[in-house]
Design brief:
The complex is a heterotrimer of chains A (about 350), B (about 290) and C (about 290). Chain A is built from 9 helices and 19 strands. In chain A, the strands form 4 sheets. A 6-stranded mixed sheet of chain A has the order 6-7-8-3-9-10, with helices on both faces. In chain A, strands 13-17-14-15-16 form a 5-stranded antiparallel sheet, with no helix packed on it. A 4-stranded antiparallel sheet of chain A has the order 2-1-4-5, covered by helices on one side. Helices cover about 25% and strands about 30% of the residues of chain A. Chain A starts with a strand and ends in a 7-residue tail after the last strand. The chains are: A alpha+beta (about 350), B mainly alpha (about 290), C mainly alpha (about 290). At the B-C interface, α1, α4, α5, α6 and α8 of B face α2, α3, α6, α7 and α8 of C.
């Protein structure tokens, strides 16, 4: 039975149709990630679920109840804001216990829950401090603690890691994953970072322009993107998507490309060979040696260079003529509108 | 915003402020317009017939009218010039840190908080009195004749009082504006070889342009209504030498008890103020978001 | 030249020594000038304060005596004068009263505009501003007539109403800008935590907005206390404020310098001190936020 369900939800800002009819079903205990470029509506969708914006048409169900018109305070949802939104005039302990105090819960129970959450998040030494005295990472943990203490039906995260520096981001990501494993709570997480999406999600919802492009597990999205947008959004570096017209040489190897369509190849499915070998010829434009792998940018006469990924150290130099060999079985075919015509057959790497 | 708490709540909250201000604006205005078109003497209530624009004519043809307008302009203009130039100079002087700067700034602002009536009397008796005022003593010290400010230079005296009071205001505004100056820009200019005057002309002045405009406009609005100082010291005189527009209206209303003429004059003053206000509002509006 | 960092200890010694010898002449001159100018500017106030502690004879002596034994007689006599207390009481009542009334009206309005912004919010704010810009003298006749008819002439109630109306635009503006500074997300967090509108107000808005309310109140207090135009015109014997009292001292007979100075000092001292603490609010309030 679906735990959280959105049915044809729409949202207008003035005349701007920000959310254009979204249907989504979320199971209990799932970790769902909303991902997409800025302005795609992922935060708006989250806020609609939270009740901080009103749904203009459609409905929202939680645990069997229609909560479409219910105010935020009654939805039993907890949100972790991008800016943490801690109460500056309250101590950490008071911040975390605020909701329970409002609900007039038993002070002993409140104390217990706050202590428990503080222990999980390593906040015990900071319980009497105010947010001003905490670092960014600590504040973030207080924001999470505030949500945990309430044991809400769903956790909502709005880009919680974007204000942290890179090292802290990676660390906190791991902690959030662990938290979800331990608590098993239903979570909706919004981010523009696809690495977070891929690592944290049970299922990923890719949004663009107020519409859902695709929903699936991270690897489903990676191996079987439903369209060109998803294919290029997921995966770093971006999938090489080339109009077949620009590289007619590929038509021999990759059969069945719709006319006016595109061929998509992930960097790991392209290998750099000596000049003369392979389906396409070109010159090396840039070599990025990352240590564990190397990225080679080859100018083959297409609008953007083709990116190849190899797990060995650089073997070519800039300006060298090289050949490109593609793994035809791993090619994604897209029609002229960007919809997938045939997904890659082989998924193993 | 919750669908359950519709537009009603914010409107209710706004209502008291909006209605009271609306009444405060409309009622006096309507009444003033009405009074300006009738004969209305506060000492003879009841004989209020409609006399059209006669009040306006009377007010405008009053020999004191032109004088009062000129005096108003002189007053406003001089005070503005003194406070802007003095204010900038002072602000620049106290801009860089020095021992006791915080204290100095606190002291500097004091004149602005002195009650206008105290201000007036302080200057009239303590500073400007030709017998025992401070200026008189300084004059004696240098062997010169002390000046009877109130009698011989009434408008100048008022200007001095008002300027003294508003100088700290302008200074404070400029200090605030200077504080937001981009230090790095100044350092770049210095490295480019700019000396102090060049820095002033090309860096400080443009940055201050906005606050100068604000100071000028705010002062224009408040200085039109200068009243207490004139009331307490010169009473507009001798004759009408130190009567400004506001005082003239007051004279008509509460000394001649001619509310009709006073209202006509008041409308004139309101129109003038409106013109300035339009500009100021436009400038502030840009800053709203 | 490929000299790398070497003998780091050798250089600093001489540099520090050299630095100590270069005296900042410009800075010193500036500091002295600043102090001198400041003292000159506030000289009248200092002189007033000094005179307040003199006897009447000493006060009118020429040349001025800079050294004298201070006396508190003037202050005592001023306070004993029954109408001084009345006037002081009126000043207190009208400034505190108009401040509280003003806050009560302005705060909800500012809250509404800060957190329930609509297309019209900006226009309403601008309009409120414009009401402040009309010269008071423009409303003199009608207000006087109204006050006369409604029996509010020469009453503290009448003054409170007028003061509140005069200062309302400034108060709304200042409170609006303070409320705007409270991040909306904190209120949203409170909402998510289960707080209704009242809860938001009581637990988040009030504690966070207290500073703004206090600053605005302080400014209003200052403006009402110093208000002279209406105080002079709408009051006679009963509701006169200190501003009016001082003005009445200016009649030719009965000029007692030292007492006048003492009365004046008492009248301005609290406000000048208040003013020292509310400088920032003053700038914001008086310029309606145009200068930050």
């Amino acid at each position: 039975m679906a735990f959280l369900q959105l049915r044809n939800v729409e949202k207008f800002f003035g005349s701007n149709r920000a959310i254009k009819g979204v249907d989504l079903t979320i199971e209990k205990g799932e970790f769902i990630v909303f991902v997409g470029p800025s302005g795609c509506g992922k935060s708006t969708l989250l806020r609609l679920i939270a009740g901080l914006e009103t749904i203009d048409s459609g409905s929202l169900y939680l645990d069997g109840r229609d909560i479409t018109d219910l105010p935020s305070s009654k939805r039993d949802l907890a949100m972790v804001f991008q800016s943490y939104a801690l109460y500056p005039h309250m101590s950490v302990a008071d911040n975390m216990s605020f909701a329970l105090r409002l609900a007039k819960a038993d002070p002993k129970v409140i104390e217990e829950k706050v202590q428990h959450a503080a222990k999980i998040l390593n906040l015990v030494p900071y319980l009497s401090r105010t947010p001003r005295e905490l670092s960014g990472g600590q504040r973030q943990r207080v924001a999470i603690g505030r949500a945990i203490v309430r044991s809400p039906k769903v956790f909502l995260f709005d880009e919680p890691l974007s204000n942290l520096d890179a090292a802290l981001r990676g660390q906190t990501r791991v902690e959030i994953a662990k938290l979800h494993r331990d608590l098993g709570a239903t979570t909706i997480y919004v981010t523009h970072d696809q690495v977070e999406a891929m690592t944290l999600a049970d299922r990923v919802v890719v949004l663009r322009d107020g519409l859902i492009e695709q929903v699936g597990t991270p690897l489903e999205l990676y191996d079987k993107p439903a369209n060109q947008f998803v294919a290029q959004f997921i995966g770093t570096p971006q999938m090489n998507v080339v109009p077949i017209a620009d590289l007619p040489q590929l038509q021999a190897a990759v059969k069945g490309v719709p006319s006016g369509g595109f061929v998509g190849l992930r960097p790991e499915n392209i290998s750099v060979k000596p000049a003369g070998v392979g389906q396409v010829q070109g010159t090396v434009e840039l070599v990025e040696a990352l240590g564990a792998e190397t990225l080679i940018y080859v100018n083959a006469g297409t609008k953007t260079p083709l990116v190849a990924r190899q797990s060995t150290r650089p073997s070519v130099r800039v300006g060298e003529p090289v050949g490109i060999e593609i793994d035809a079985a791993a090619a994604h075919l897209f029609d002229a509108q960007g919809r997938v015509a045939r997904a890659a057959a082989a998924a193993a790497h | 915003m919750q669908r359950s708490a519709p537009r009603l709540l914010p409107r209710l909250l706004l209502a008291p402020a909006v209605t009271t201000l609306f009444l405060w604006m409309i009622v006096p205005l309507v009444m003033t317009i009405y009074f300006s078109l009738i004969r209305y003497n506060l000492m003879q209530p009841g004989a209020n017939e409609f006399i059209g624009l006669a009040n306006f004519e009377f007010f405008l043809t009053d020999p004191s009218f032109i004088t009062s307008v000129i005096n108003s302009l002189q007053l406003i203009g001089s005070v503005i010039i003194i406070t802007v130039i003095g204010g900038i100079a002072l602000a620049l002087l106290v801009n860089d840190p020095f021992p006791g700067r915080g204290f100095v700034r606190m002291l500097l602002i004091s004149p602005f908080f002195v009650m206008p009536t105290v201000n007036a009397l302080m200057w009239k008796h303590m500073m400007m009195n030709p017998i025992y005022g401070v200026f008189a003593q300084v004059a004696h010290f240098f062997g010169a004749e002390p000046i009877d400010f109130m009698a011989d230079w009434p408008l100048v005296s008022i200007i001095v009082m008002v300027a003294w009071q508003w100088l700290p205001f302008a200074c404070l505004i400029f200090i605030t504006a200077l504080a937001s100056m981009n230090r790095e820009q100044l350092e770049a200019a210095r490295m480019d070889g700019a000396n102090y005057f060049q820095q002033f002309r090309f860096m400080y002045l443009p940055h201050l342009a906005r606050s100068i405009a604000v100071v000028i406009m705010i002062e224009m609005i408040f200085l039109i209504s200068v009243f207490a100082e004139i009331f307490t010291t010169t009473g507009g005189g001798p004759g009408d030498a130190s009567t400004n527009l506001a005082f003239l209206i007051f004279k008509q209303a509460l000394l001649n008890f001619d509310a009709g003429v006073a209202s006509a004059g008041a409308l004139l003053a309101v129109v003038l103020a409106n013109i300035v206000a339009v500009f100021l509002i436009r400038m502030i509006g840009k800053n709203l978001d | 030249m490929s000299r790398t960092i070497e003998s780091p200890t050798a250089v600093p010694q001489t540099a520090t020594a050299r630095r100590k010898q270069a005296f900042d002449w410009v800075g010193a001159v500036r500091a002295v000038a600043a102090w001198v100018v400041t003292l000159l500017i506030i000289f009248p106030i200092l002189f007033l304060a000094m005179t307040a502690f003199k006897t009447e004879l000493q006060a009118i002596e020429v040349p001025t005596h800079w050294f004298f034994t201070p006396t508190l007689d003037n202050f005592r006599e001023v306070q004993e004068r029954s109408d001084y207390l009345l006037y002081a009481k009126n000043s207190l009542i009208t400034s505190i009263g108009s401040t509280l009334l003003g806050l009560a009206i302005a705060a909800p309005a500012a809250y509404s505009m800060a957190f329930f912004r609509s297309k019209r919010t900006r226009d309403i704010l601008m309009w409120m501003l414009s009401t402040k810009m009309m010269p008071a003298v423009g409303a003199l006749v009608p207000v006087y007539a109204l006050a006369q008819r409604s029996g509010l002439l020469d009453t503290t109630t009448g003054l409170i109403i007028i003061f509140t109306l005069s200062n309302l635009p400034i108060m709304v503006w200042m409170l609006y800008s303070y409320f705007k500074d409270i991040p909306n997300e904190i209120l949203e967090a409170a909402r998510m935590d289960g707080a209704g509108v009242w809860g938001e107000f009581r637990y988040v808005l009030l504690p966070l907005g207290m500073g703004g309310l206090a600053s605005t109140g302080l400014l209003c207090l200052v403006l009402a206390w110093n208000e002279a135009f209406w105080a002079l015109n709408l009051t006679a014997a009963n509701a006169g404020t200190l501003a009016a009292l001082i003005a009445s001292y200016s009649s030719p007979e009965g000029l007692f310098w030292a007492k006048l100075s003492a009365a004046s000092l008492l009248a301005i001292a609290p406000i000048v001190v208040f003013g020292w603490f509310s400088q920032k609010q003053l700038v914001q309030g008086m310029t309606f936020g145009a200068v930050k």
